[in-house]
Amino acid sequence: MDEEKILMERCGKANPFSTPQGYFETLPHQVMSRIRQRQQRRRIWRWAIAAVMTGCIFTVGLMFQNRTTTDTLTAEDQYIEDMLDYSMMNNMDIAYYITEAE
Question: Rounded CA gap, 14 and 10, in Å?
Fold first, then answer.
């Protein structure tokens, strides 16, 4: 209790803290505008993340589609590949033969 009396003698009963004029009248408007800004940023980030993920999924799907179409050979293509391997001709001989045949 003695400390309280000492403080009251030094400072008095006056409040040493003050707020700017009209602070509490403008505070709700400022808080609400900041909340709206954050919500808008979150919406933009969500759309951006969704766009990036969609692009990634599309790219991976395209890669798998191209991989499956180039890796699988039909029976006819496999036959031609085998014949070229057994013929023991290099690419220059094949190119020469094709150009002479035309």
Answer: 11
Token code pair at residue 6:
């000492």
Q: How far apart are CA 7 and CA 16, in angstroms?
A: 12
pTM of the model: 0.43
- Of 65, 94, 66, nearest to 81 by C-alpha is 94
Question: pLDDT at position 101, please?
Answer: 60
Q: Cβ(84)–Cβ(94) under 8 Å? A: yes
b vs e for 2-23, b when ≥16 Cβ sit within 10 Å of the residue's Cβ? Answer: eeeeeeeeeeeeeeeeeeeeee
